Structures are given as C-alpha cells and as structure tokens.
C-alpha cells in the first residue's frame, strides 16, 4: 500500500491519506483502490497489466468530447494519461460515488438513460490517430481457443488437484461437445469479413461496469475497448447475461428506447455472442482451478453453460438464424 501512495504522489502529484481495495470485478490482472486525500477528494487508483493502453486514451477522448458518464483519467505531472510501475499501468480517475447496477438493478428510466449513453458513445467518431491505435478484435478472444484446448486436456487427464477441480472437470466434460461447437463457431466466423461500420465499443458493458450515481449513470472499466460494429456491445442487452443485462422484455425495450432504432446483423451478432460465451466459459473455468473465489467461479461456469446462457443463445441463433 505504501508503494501506491508514493507512486501516486510522485507520478500524479496527488497526496493520498487512505487506500481501500475494491474487490468487485473479474479482472485478476488489475488491482483497484478507492483513495482519499487529506482534504477529502476521492480517486480510483488502478494498477493493471490487462487490456491495452488505448483505454485511457479513449476515455479521455470521450470525456473531453462532453460525454457525460465516462470518467476521464487524471493526467500525470508530465501530462500523460498513465504512468508505468513494475511493468503495469498506473492510472488515476475521479472516484464515482454510486451503487453498482449489478447489485441494485436499473429502473425503467435508468435503462433508457443507459441506452442513450451507449448510443452517444457509438455515435462519436474517434480521430484517425486514436482509431488507428484501437484493436478491431478484443485481444482476449485471440487466446481463447488455446486456453480452451489446454483446459480440456487437463480435465480429460483425470488427475484433479482436489475435489473442487474434480467438479469443474465433470462440468466441463459434461458439456465438452457444446464447448467444442462454440470454439468451432468463433473460428468459422473469425475467418469471414463480417462487415459493419466500426464504432467505439466498450466490449464489456454489462451492469457490473455501470455505476448508478444520483444524477448520472457511469460506464467504467474500459480495458477491453475496441473499434467494432455495434453488435459487439449490444449483445449484452439481448439476453443470456442473467442479472448483468436486461432480464425482462420491458427492460430491453426501455434500453432501446434510449438507444434508438438499430438494425442488427444476424451473422455479426452470432459471432460476438459466441466469442463472449467462449471467453466466459474458459476464463471462469480457469479461475475455478487457480482461484480466487473458486466455488463462485464454478457456479458461474455452470450458469454459462445453462439453458438460458449466452452460450445457448449463440448456438441456437447459429442453428436457427433467429436473432
């Protein structure tokens, strides 16, 4: 903790009096702290080895463009958007006092406000330099087939480290044909030109990344931001995310009332759903083996392979052609 206090003072010129770890989120590559100064200002301190360094560039651009609800980074003493400490990015942003929408849910009006916020993000064209720096594919997606293969080999070997891993292996092997089909689907679509107009996409805009403040919703954690068609983000609003997305037709309708009319492409939506489903399967299975929170991870893994999961929707859509 003392290192973070010193780093923030040296790099950002901000004196911290207190640091509290923030445990929310599935990103084991990042540490997030709620920090306060002796005079009462509060900041979010993030030390991350995940994602790409384009995230603070995008949030700075959106905040500077006047998008309410996107907290921009605090610049370093030298005007940079982050510093580097022990090989990881250290960033500072204003602390948003509010509840996680994943915990509280959203009212009908808040769903509409969230739709309007995401529509505003999608409507802003990034400058050419920023667009050139942005990935067209979530970097996580590229390593999922290899991780899935490695996990499948481990679970098939039949030598679990303990009883919990044995449960993880049993769950995986029970659904191995489904998992193989998702891998096949993502690889099949990845070879195609999916077309579509690329826009700034958060790529992980579920309710775990939405903060509800008294006057404004805030979309946080932009580590996976990409330049992609809108289906990359809107898949989260079309079912399969359980309480992390709309759970009723009324909530979905409220979101799209704010977002506005949109024509979704069947092929792109199927691909992005499948890619996200594979990510959720592989990463939660891996964390169920390595920790932390192994039992919770196993529970989530089972949900991700259930009948109302994103996995089921992706495969059902691929087989039926229905959005």
UniProtKB/TrEMBL annotation:
Pfam families, sorted: APH
InterPro entries (UniProt xref): Aminoglycoside_PTrfase (IPR002575), Kinase-like_dom_sf (IPR011009)
Superkingdom of source: Bacteria
Gene3D superfamilies tied to this protein: 1.20.58.840, Phosphorylase Kinase, domain 1, Transferase(Phosphotransferase) domain 1
Residue span(s) of domain Aminoglycoside phosphotransferase: 58-264
Protein name according to UniProt: Spectinomycin phosphotransferase
Organism: Kribbella orskensis
Source taxonomy: Bacteria, Bacillati, Actinomycetota, Actinomycetes, Propionibacteriales
